[in-house]
Design a protein that fits this description.
Layout: E1 6-11, H1 34-47, E2 57-62, H2 70-80, E3 89-94, H3 101-109, E4 114-120, H4 124-130, H5 136-148, E5 154-160, H6 167-181, E6 185-190, H7 198-204, H8 212-228, E7 232-235, E8 238-240, H9 247-253, E9 259-261, E10 266-269, E11 272-276, H10 280-285, E12 290-295, H11 298-309, E13 316-317, H12 330-335, H13 339-344, E14 348-351, E15 354-357, H14 359-362, H15 365-372
Parallel strand pairs: 1-2, 1-9, 2-3, 3-4, 4-5, 5-6
Antiparallel strand pairs: 6-8, 7-8, 10-11, 11-12, 13-15, 14-15
Helix pairs in contact: 1-2, 6-8
Bound molecules: iron/sulfur cluster.
Length: 373
């Protein structure tokens, strides 16, 4: 069996719960403690036999991993150390106002070499709409602290499609990123109204509006601005300067196996997808307990490949569109609906036996993927 080169660790703690967020998270209470770190390491110990000697990527997401104390981060990385080499991409998701220079230096010293900073916006009104608990100034200070601590690989998360967000406010955010902060990587996510969130209820009641034309314009504005500033648009939501593309995300998009550790974390290994219990207290008691096991069929993998690879700069291999149950040739696919009609509408392009989204198609990636499935 081939070893697994990618590992994700879910840290579910947030000081403040954002009303649009659908991730498994909660306030730390008394749970961000030694026993939580011990549970992660005990799960790692129980499942490490699948891992490669050294990981290609390790990603700490959440939640807010930067909320962990320096002592807990050090304890966690003592256990992770054997799996990390100088070449491993080690990312930590961080929020502004959750670390100071001393903690940032420790994060760098223990082996974290990439930070994904959750900024979302630098605008006071937009941050208020999103219910974030930091200011634009906090975000800039956090970025400078990371630079001072020696982080050269920093990604900034921004958000668009937010009610009240005008093109000029969005432009200010993009300008701050490219002219002032100059990170190597930017992620731009559009706000979506997810199940079981306060925002979905407020959206359904008509309080928070959605406007597809505005969203598409803000999306194109980001592409134009970031590409002009030298960022490659290598996935619908992700832009990187050369050499700063996220290797961890690429592993997901290309269907690589990964081990997930922590409450609610998902693993996909050798055709089995398993999910750990999304309940931190019970996770600490039983770190290896899984709530769901699903065997992925070839057809499942094909559908996931369409949904994810179509979003990437490398495009989707055209034979992925053929159902695994029926024989088909590339010529048949090219003549089939919806490929032919979407090509004529200028939503997709076919080159080198791959399907690529055009500029117009990028704004409609999800419905296009559904049509191809
Ligand atoms: S900080 Fe991040 S993970 Fe936590 S609630 Fe807000 S969006 Fe969700």
């Amino acid at each position: 069996m081939s070893p697994v080169f990618h590992c994700y660790i879910h840290i579910p703690f947030c000081h403040h719960i954002c009303p649009y967020c659908a991730f498994y998270k909660h306030k730390p209470g008394k749970l961000a403690n030694d026993a939580f770190i011990a549970a992660i390491l005990s799960q790692l110990d129980a499942e490490k036999s699948v891992l490669a000697e050294k990981l290609d990527t390790l990603y700490l997401g959440g939640g807010t991993p930067s909320l962990l104390s320096a002592v807990h981060l050090e304890a966690l990385f003592r256990g992770l150390r054997p799996f990390i080499s100088p070449e491993t991409e080690v990312t930590l998701e961080a929020n502004p106002a959750t670390f100071d220079l001393k903690k940032a230096r420790i994060m760098r010293e223990i082996g974290i070499n990439r930070i994904s900073l959750g900024v979302q916006s630098f605008q006071t009104g937009i941050l208020k709409t999103l219910g974030r608990d930091h200011s634009g100034e906090d975000a800039k200070i956090a970025f400078e602290i990371l630079r001072e601590a020696g982080f050269t690989n920093i990604s900034i998360d921004l958000m668009f499609s937010i009610p009240g967000q005008t093109e000029s406010l969005w432009q200010e955010d993009l300008d701050i990123v490219t002219s002032e902060l100059k990170p190597g990587h930017v992620s731009c996510y559009n706000l979506t109204y997810e199940e079981d969130t306060e925002f979905l209820k407020r959206h359904e009641s008509g309080e928070l509006d959605e406007n597809e034309d505005r969203d598409a314009n803000l999306f194109y504005q980001a592409i134009d601005h970031l590409e002009a500033a030298g960022f490659g648009h290598y996935e619908i939501s992700n832009y990187g300067q050369s050499g700063f593309e996220s290797r961890h995300n690429r592993a997901y998009w290309t269907g690589k196996d990964y081990l997930g550790l922590g409450p609610g974390a998902v693993s996909t290994i050798h055709g089995i997808r398993a999910k750990a219990l999304p309940d931190t207290a019970r996770f600490v008691e039983s770190p290896t307990l899984k709530t769901e096991h699903e065997t992925l069929t070839e057809e499942d993998r094909r559908i996931e490949a369409i949904a994810m690879q179509l979003r990437t700069r490398e495009g989707l291999r055209i034979n992925r569109v053929c159902s695994t149950n029926e024989p088909c040739s590339i010529e048949t696919v090219l003549r089939s609906n919806p490929i032919e009609s979407m090509t004529q509408q200028g939503l997709i392009e076919i080159r080198d036996e791959r399907i690529f989204l055009t500029r117009e198609g990028k704004a409609l990636a999800d419905p296009i993927a559904s049509a191809l499935i």
